[in-house]
Design brief:
mainly alpha, Farnesyl Diphosphate Synthase, two-stranded antiparallel ribbon, globular, disordered N terminus, binds geranylgeranyl diphosphate
C-alpha cells in the first residue's frame, strides 16, 4: 500500500530516517511480547500491516533537530505508536469499520471484544514503558494527551447525526482526537532533548497544527479518495453520519436542495446517496476549501519550525508539512 513515505516517492525524509525507524521497529517487536498468544497474534496483525508511522517520526525528528543523541527517543517513538494503535483498534470497533491498512480490521478478523482488549493491552504496555523511562514530564504529557483523545472521541459521538454542528465544534473534535497525539509526539522530542519551554511550545504548536491539517485531509479523502489506495473504505464518515468539514462547507455553499440532501444523509447515515453527495461537495468547492484549511494549518506548523536551528531533521519536518496537505493516501 502506498504511504506517506512510499518507496515509489523516495524522499530525503525516508533516507534520513531509515536507521532510526528500524530501531523503533526493533523496540516495537521486543515490547509486543506477551505470554498470551491472542495478544501477540492481534498486535502483530495490526502493527505488521504497516501504517505511515508519522507520530514516531515526529519524536525522532524533533529529538534529532534539538541535538539529542541518547536511546530514549526510540522508546518514546514506540510508545506513541502503541498508543496510536490502541486508538485505531478501539476506533474501528466504535465505527464498525471493516478495512484498515489495506486489510480486514482486527474487529472484522477477531471480533470486537478481542480488539478492544488488545487495544487495552497496547495502551497499558505503553504506560509500563513510560514508567521505565522514569521521567514524570513524559508521563504527564502522555497522560494528558490520551485523556484528551478519549474526550475527542466522546465529543465526536455526541456530534454524530447532527447537521447543525458548527465549524469550531468540528475543529475541536479533530484537535482532540487526532492533533493531540501529534502534538504530544512533537513535544516529547523536545522534552527528551531538554529544550527550553519556548522551544517545547514551538514543537507542540507544530504537532498540533500538522495533526489538524492531517485530519482535515483525512476527512476530505473520505469523499475524494480511493478505497484501494487509502487502504480503508471511503464513504465511511457519511455512513456513520459524521458532520465533517466537506459536508459543512457544502451545506453552507449549496442550494436549498443540496442542503436538504446532506442534512438528511447526516441524520440517517445514508450512504446510498454518496455519489450525489460527492457531486455536491465537488461542485461547491468544499473539497478544495477543506484542503485550503489544511494548507493554512500546515503553514502554521511550518512557521513554528523556524524557532529551531537549521538542520536536516528540520528540513524533513518542513517536508512533512507539504506532504500532509498534498497526500492522496
Ligand atoms: C485508547 C487512548 C485511547 C482512546 C480510545 C477510540 C479512541 C479513544 C480514539 C480514536 C482516535 C482516532 C482513531 C483518531 C483518528 C486518527 C487518525 C487520523 C488515524 C489514522 O492515522 P494514520 O493515517 O494511520 O496515521 P496509519 O495507518 O498510517 O498509522
Amino acid at each position: 500500500m502506498p504511504t506517506l513515505d512510499s518507496p515509489t516517492t523516495a524522499s530525503p525524509v525516508q533516507e534520513l530516517m531509515a536507521d532510526g525507524m528500524s530501531r523503533v521497529d526493533a523496540v516495537i517487536r521486543a515490547r509486543l511480547s506477551s505470554e498470551v498468544a491472542l495478544i501477540e497474534q492481534i498486535s502483530h496483525y495490526i502493527i505488521g500491516a504497516g501504517g505511515k508511522r508519522i507520530r514516531p517520526r515526529l519524536v525522532l525528528l524533533f529529538a534529532q533537530a534539538l541535538g539529542h543523541e541518547g536511546p530514549e527517543p526510540y522508546e518514546l517513538a514506540a510508545i506513541v505508536e502503541f498508543i496510536h494503535t490502541a486508538t485505531l483498534l478501539h476506533d474501528d470497533v466504535v465505527d464498525e469499520s471493516s478495512l484498515r491498512r489495506g486489510r480486514a480490521t482486527a474487529n472484522a478478523m477477531f471480533g470486537n471484544a478481542a480488539s478492544v482488549l488488545v487495544g487495552d493491552f497496547l495502551y497499558s504496555r505503553a504506560f509500563q514503558m513510560m514508567v521505565s523511562l522514569d521521567r514524570m514530564r513524559v508521563l504527564e504529557v502522555l497522560a494528558d494527551a490520551t485523556n484528551v483523545i478519549a474526550e475527542g472521541e466522546v465529543l465526536q459521538l455526541m456530534n454524530m447525526h447532527d447537521p447543525d454542528i458548527t465549524v469550531p465544534a468540528y475543529l475541536q473534535v479533530i484537535r482532540y482526537k487526532t492533533a493531540k497525539l501529534f502534538e504530544a509526539s512533537a513535544r516529547l522530542g523536545a522534552v527528551i532533548a531538554g529544550a527550553s519551554p519556548e522551544i517545547e511550545a514551538a514543537c507542540a504548536d507544530y504537532g498540533r497544527a500538522l495533526g489538524t491539517a492531517f485530519q482535515l485531509v483525512d476527512d476530505l479523502l473520505d469523499y475524494e479518495g480511493d478505497t484501494q489506495a487509502l487502504g480503508k473504505n471511503v464513504g465511511d464518515d457519511l455512513r456513520e453520519g459524521k458532520p465533517t468539514l466537506p459536508l459543512l462547507v457544502a451545506m453552507e455553499r449549496g442550494t436549498a436542495q443540496d442542503r436538504e440532501l446532506i442534512r438528511h444523509a447526516i441524520e440517517h447515515g445514508e450512504v446510498e446517496r454518496l455519489p450525489d453527495i460527492i457531486a455536491i461537495v465537488r461542485r461547491t468547492g468544499a473539497l478544495e476549501a477543506t484542503r485550503e484549511a489544511a494548507r493554512a494549518e500546515a503553514n502554521v506548523a511550518r512557521e513554528r519550525l523556524f524557532a529551531l536551528p537549521p538542520s536536516a531533521a528540520r528540513e524533513a519536518l518542513l517536508e512533512f508539512c507539504a506532504r500532509s496537505v498534498e497526500r492522496s493516501t
